Amino acid sequence: MNKKILLGPFKQILPMTGLSLKGALVDSALPIYEDAGILITDGIISALGTFNELLHQNKGIEIFHLEGDHVALPGFVDSHTHICFAGSRAKDYALRNAGKTYLEIAKAGGGIWDTVTQTRKASQSELVKHTVKLANRHLKNGTTTLEVKSGYGLTLDEELKILRAIKEADVNTSADLIPTCLAAHMLPRDFEGSATDYLEGISTLLFPRLKEEKLTRRIDAFIEESAFSKAQIAPYFQKAREMGFDITVHADQFTSGGSEVAVAYGAVSADHLEVSTQKEIEMLAKSDVIATALPGASLGLGCGFTPARHLLDAGAALAIASDHNPGSAPMGDLLTQASILGAFEKLSNAEVLAGITFRAAAALRLADRGQLQVGYLADLSIFHTNHYNEILYNQGNLKPCMVWKKGELAFNKN
């Protein structure tokens, strides 16, 4: 096909290359191309450099000329969302703000089970439509790749319905949707048996179907008082690992223990970590597990943030994701949340941007995005500004003016 496009000139391009996966980062380490251009061939970055030099070297190709000052970043990667659901939990939000706790609301019939009930009533086509709508909203805000979890079905047929909906939604949006099976979200209230019985049954019946239909390569579980214990989840993760699935864990949100399981089973990531102590921080830092902060949940629940500064200083790899869901994290604005986390946890701009680009891509084991370099997908989030510092400084109020996905213009504000 050999379709070539030269995009530019940019005041600045931040490729997010040459930075370590783990540990703290300083802004002075950020590589910056100035007065630069990006050459895209068949959706892949084929060259970066001075715009005029690329223009001179590639005569006769299509030029997408930018007027005014623009800054280019890699398309954002949101490595933890729950955007395939039905219904609303606005009532839960009001109850929390009136003093009820997350666990109190869950025990009274609200929480995750409320969304399970509403999602079970929805058809697959309704879930597809809603998921595409939310994915497109993320795309306009600069996120070109989103992980999307199941977990609001909690039966064989309902979990399959949700994962099929995610698969169908993926072909109806320009954003890439990465599916994850979260059948171990909680013990269904209508299940007659123990947590061990549920996990054994769902893994025996569901895991082979996931492989057969190629619905996901990722298995997640919520390790918490309101969900599953470390002991209960062990055989579930063991089976997942034996079948070749990647493992990720909802860990240390209200009580600690989940990150220990994540390390023990070689999980790709441990997500939440709001109550992680120094013990868990050091454990994660010594492992290859990506520590994922979910500031949207902290904002939605009104609780403390993931100890991101301590994790980075200990040497951990830190990703930042939105946790977009109808209950604890309804905002779903990754850039705003990451900016706020940076202010509260005293993260450098380099650390925040790394957390929503290449470190988040690593949390999904995606080696073709999250950076702007030759051979990577031409996924770009472009801002109408003269300096990258303005992006986080505006705490989400400065939105992308343009988003490119695989070398195609997916969103243009102008």
Account of the 3D structure:
The chain has 414 residues and is of the alpha/beta class. The protein folds into two domains: 4-75 and 370-412, Urease, subunit C, domain 1; 77-363, TIM Barrel. The protein has helices at 51-57, 90-97, 102-107, 112-121, 124-140, 156-170, 195-213, 230-242, 258-264, 278-285, 295-301, 308-314, 334-345, 349-355, 358-363, 389-393, and strands at 4-13, 33-41, 44-50, 62-65, 71-74, 76-78, 143-149, 176-184, 218-222, 246-251, 269-272, 290-293, 317-320, 380-383, 402-405, 408-412. The strands form two sheets. Strands 1, 2, 3, 4, 5, 14, 15 and 16 form an eight-stranded mixed beta sheet that branches. It has an eight-stranded parallel beta sheet with strand order 6-7-8-9-10-11-12-13. Helix 10 (278-285) links the parallel strand 11 (269-272) and strand 12 (290-293). Helix 7 (195-213) packs parallel to helix 8 (230-242). The longest helix is centred in the middle third of the chain and has 19 residues, at 195-213. The mean pLDDT is 97.
Q: Outline, from the CA principal axes?
A: globular
Number of helices: 16
Helical content class: 25-40%
The overall pLDDT, averaged over residues, is 97
> How would a crystallographer describe the biggest sheet?
8 strands, mixed
Structural class: alpha/beta
Note the main attributes of this structure.
414 residues, alpha/beta, Urease, subunit C, domain 1, TIM Barrel, 2 domains, eight-stranded mixed beta sheet, 37% helix
Summarize the model shown:
The protein is α/β, with parallel strands linked by helices and 414 residues long. Helix content is 37%, strand content 21%.
